[in-house]
Amino acid sequence: MEPGLGAERPRPAAGEVARIFADQTGPRAERLRARPGEGRGVARPRYRRSACSCERTRSYRHADRQPTGRRRLARARAWPAEGGWRRRRNARRLGAGARFRRGGSVRRREGRRWLWLHQCRGVAERAGGAVSGFSRREVCLGLAATGFLSPAGAAAAPYDAVVRRSGGTHSSLGAALSSAPPGEAPYRILLGAGRWEEKLTIARPNVALIGEDRRRTILTSAIASGHAKPAGGTYGTFGSATLTAEAPGFSARTLTIENGFDYVANLRSRAIADAQAVALAFGFGADRMRIENVELLGHQDTFYLRGGRASVRNCLIAGGVDFIFGGAAALFEGCEIRSRLRPGEPLQGYVAAPSTPREQPYGLVFANCRLTREAGVPPASVWLGRPWRAGGNLGLRGAAAYLDCWMDAHIHPEGWTWMGYKGPGGYAMRFEPGDARFFEYQSPGPGARRNRARSQLSMAEARAHSSLLGDWKP
């Protein structure tokens, strides 16, 4: 048994233990706190180094896990000898010739080394080679010589297509989508930084669109519902979308998707009667859609979710009128929902306009989101939502819920309002919020209220709403 790791020795006094700690920790250690009682010594500093200054011997995450009594004294007595008990333990694990370098504990360094070699082995085997019996240096030199460790090779390896102005596999996103092989295998596209003016429809399943930077990778168009199509007619609301996904399994992350139609200028000129301009639209064939760390920018009808299930996380969605709408079952988590200014309008707008089928239990659910506003949006001028009965379809009964969402003062005290539609006989009718399924649960902020017009859920009901995606775990 090694000295200091359990051998019976006379116990030093508490003052001697304190002196040993002070000698080994140096001036950067925290002040030691003396503890009364024989065998307890003093508390350890929160962070210290051993005699080998290159090795960290105590992680801040484990600062509260301090051994007591005899083990603490044994460890304290072991510090002066040969760099400390931890260094000797690591030396036994790795062999007598173990070398200690910067970069954390031996276990973490060995884990990183194993992961690096494992990744290199995978790259080499895909290239038709093998790395068995080779050292790390030999593997690195070999992969560098073949180009697999070059920046271009590293960027291209995880993606099926790379869209850049120069140096990529394609020069436009449309070309990358056109070259996707048929079938349902995942197809990953890296979209480089820049402003990409394209209007696209994705009809292939399991397409993943990854931007290089959330702010600098921008996919945009400027088409509104009332704009004329080249083949005749107008685009309509769904057809105005910058990006449309009509197949299941689509995902997007780390980019901006916007509809750049000048809505504010059209408010003054009224050049186009139908000013709906969609940034992102999901069709009826869409399902299991994932949007993460994306900015969706527009004014009226920014995000259109017709059907299926969608998971939206850590996104910014900005608009003015009904800018999150449709009949899908969608869960918005940790998003910022920003209301934009409509100059000269006393009523600034509506956040959600669900058109949920009557047989579908849940619709648009916002959990732990923030409802914010642009500068100039007055207080009590924006409604949480209104029920949309698309085409006068009586089988639609909108559903929306806000769970623990912070609300700024621009939210109207009554929360929800009505929406008009044409009934079966062509008569104008009103769909009242009391006839829809609108709820809230423990939402804080200056715009949150507790009144008769804003129905509150119980904890069990809120938990059921948050599990609306069913067996799909995005």
TrEMBL record:
* Homology family: Belongs to the pectinesterase family.
Region: Disordered; residue ranges are 1-44
Which InterPro entries did the record assign? Pectin_lyas_fold, Pectin_lyase_fold/virulence, Pectinesterase_cat
An example Gene Ontology biological process: cell wall modification
A cellular component annotation (GO) from this entry: cell outer membrane
Tell me which Pfam families the record gives.
Pectinesterase
Arranged from A to Z, the UniProt key words for this protein are:
Aspartyl esterase, Hydrolase
Q: What is the protein's given name?
A: Pectinesterase catalytic domain-containing protein
Enumerate composition-biased segments (Basic and acidic residues).
28-38
Coiled-coil boundaries: none
Domain Pectinesterase catalytic as annotated: residue spans: 163-449
The molecular function GO annotations come to: pectinesterase activity
